[in-house]
Records
---
Amino acid sequence: MSIFSIAASGLRAAQAEANLAANNIANANTAGFKAKTAELTEAPTGGVAVSGVQQTGQSVDLPTQQANMKRAALMYDANGTVIHVANQMLHSMLNILDNQYQTGQTDADQTPPPFRDAAR
């Protein structure tokens, strides 16, 4: 699985957590409503998957939901940063390869300079 796929799975997990926290907050004053949480598991090919939604059996605790929203936002930002940095690295690598192609230079063409003994 590529770094892009792994980070995208993290974005989807963060979105699921944010959506559930928002739903919990919106229904905090609804009689009989119980808070829900996302069940996150490691995906078999890497990354994270939302394996389900679990009802906590407890009423909505607003400070907990605020913390869940903050955690989801941090998760989203972190995975977005991974995608951004991976894209920059890929772009740099492609530029290096393109420059080598345009100049006809490969690693095999680069001969290291001769060794010079500093004592002489």
---
Amino acid sequence: MQKRGTKRKAPPGRKTSNRYTKRMTDEWGGIDEKIEGLVRALNTGGIPTTGSCEGHADRGAPAPWAKIGAPENTPADTEALKEKLAGILRAFYATRKTTDEARLVLEDGHAGFWLHNGGEAYHRWREQVEQAAENIRKGRKVTAYVSQGERLERAQNLLRYQEEAGSFAQFVSRTKP
């Protein structure tokens, strides 16, 4: 989900103490630069991520997201991780003011859950993803299209969404869950 040259890759031979971050760096080809701090903070804090994106104005997700999943993928383990992260989010927002669109939220997903912001723009994108998946299942052609108006709206909001994710990453790092 990244333009060429904007992913951060580990240097050749670099060792990492976190097997989840190492797996993503090795298998997924890197972590988007503007979500890397959050991904590393979550993984280091014992909340394993299975995917992420920094968000884009012209394609894909309109806001940053991280997918969280328990290593064994059991419902009990996933629910425990979700409760842990929900508690951290409550602490983060206890004294922080932000818009509903920028506020990070948790949302159930297949085999884990999502941490994201972006409000209505994010939900419109998820609906488009679901529709594309349905079209693929039915053998229909899928075309990705983000209108000029949607691009402008995304561009106006994306930096604010990324900054909120970055502030949460710093909070998680300081909190050391």
---
Amino acid sequence: MTDKKAQLSVDGLDQPIELPMYSGTLGPDVIDVTSLVSKGYFTYDPGFMSTGSCESKITFIDGAKGVLLHGGYPIDQLASQSDYLEICYLLLNGELPTAEELVGLPSALESGSDIIGEADESDTPMTGIEVGDDELNTFKLLEQVNELVAQDAPTAAKIVERWIASED
């Protein structure tokens, strides 16, 4: 948990509302406004220009600056210089593999073993990834995203940022 707090003063309330603050690896600190609804308040942020839609340990997005990082790597670099297996390794291990680390990974994927894991029902959807019947559709979607990133990375970052915001 965090020790950093923000205080929100509201006309008509005797006490300010304390809100927890968090620091990410990159970007500005964030204020968690989740508890405002229990006090009868919502936030207003047209276009979600200063709202983080989720917590991510692997992705950083700054649509205004055209920045989209995945695992600390610019997405256009991953799209142009990495293949599917390298991205799988990045998701599993938090870093890109060496040539030696890639040996044996294709057979692990083909064996049907559970190399990615499962999410607990109480976890967020991004906690675990399961490879299923939609793998082909996902692969096609990733190909399209890779093409867009290669053509125009800043626009791709803005589209992904809007897409994530619309999922909530």
---
Amino acid sequence: MASGDDDAVIEWKVLLCADCERGFGRSSRAKDLSCPHCGCSAPPHLLSRHLNPADAQQAIALANIPLEIRAELTKSMSNSRHKEQKSKRINADDLPVILRAAADENGELDVDSLQVQLSIAGIVMDGEVFADEAAVAGILLNIGAGRWRILD
């Protein structure tokens, strides 16, 4: 991530505590990297980086599973997630909730905040494509590159 582009993308880091060896996550904006499990403030080991918080959450869960059962559980989780993603569609009742959660206090949103909310809702779709389709449907107004306003 470029140092001058901190507002554009939030990266999620999966870290391993140097003391208790348990996995945990922090956003790229976090200043405190101490372990939430044991409080150790020694620099943690970086396990992985993710743009999607759901992927980071899964990586944290896997980091805290004993090696003996990790492979079997990983396969099971992958199959379950694939089925969930295939069946998850945008519900008309969920649309306003997703848009409001992605918007700021002025009812404006950007592609990154929308992508995060789509991921949280379990919807696998490009945020910009989603917003462009919502603009065509008259739900959003395009106000600039990668920015929209919710129309009431």
